[in-house]
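Ops channel
N.P.: pipeline sanity check, posting one input/output pair.
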């Protein structure tokens, strides 16, 4: 299914940043057989958009935090079979060292309690020359979210937590959300 048709089916909740996310994914030049981890499943936005581009994705969040129904959306657009859900704790990932070509975190980083430990884990499980992409809301983006969820967590800048890791960084700004693209070197 093409992206436009999928977005029409899934509505604004997933389409809000879909074009931007798609552009960022395209710039990464990931191989179709890339091993991809999506941390913080939520409504499934990141996993679904990756799957719509033909990638197999492992997605997850901590046990008890699966508050949104991502499966129904994935099923509606025919990509459920490309997505595998696992319970994951960002600060202590139960996966092998250097297992993933790319790790994605879509508007979840500000919800992680120990951000430094999480980044160390992302670094540990990324392959040499692997990519870690953190899509994070800006303070203005959080203000928008707080219209519906007044107690939503504050915005964070991942750079404040990644200073001591051997990663290169590119930032792509896009209105209320930025993409922090780290490369393991």
């Amino acid at each position: 299914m093409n992206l436009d048709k999928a977005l029409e089916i899934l509505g604004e909740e997933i389409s809000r940043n879909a074009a931007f996310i798609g552009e960022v994914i395209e710039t990464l030049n990931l191989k179709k057989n890339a091993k991809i981890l999506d941390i913080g499943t939520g409504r499934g936005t990141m996993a679904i958009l990756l799957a719509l581009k033909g990638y197999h994705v492992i997605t997850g969040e901590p046990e008890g935090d699966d508050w949104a129904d991502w499966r129904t959306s994935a099923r509606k657009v025919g990509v459920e079979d490309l997505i595998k859900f696992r319970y994951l704790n960002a600060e202590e990932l139960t996966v092998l060292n250097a297992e993933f070509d790319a790790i994605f975190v879509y508007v979840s980083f500000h919800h992680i309690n120990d951000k430094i430990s999480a980044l160390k884990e992302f670094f540990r499980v990324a392959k040499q020359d692997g990519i870690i992409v953190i899509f994070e809301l800006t303070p203005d983006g959080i203000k928008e979210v707080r219209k519906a969820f007044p107690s939503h967590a504050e915005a964070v800048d991942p750079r404040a937590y990644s200073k001591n890791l051997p990663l290169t960084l590119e930032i792509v700004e896009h209105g209320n959300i930025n993409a922090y693209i780290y490369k393991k070197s």
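N.P.: looks fine end to end. Residues 3-184 form a domain with the Rossmann fold fold (CATH 3.40.50.150).
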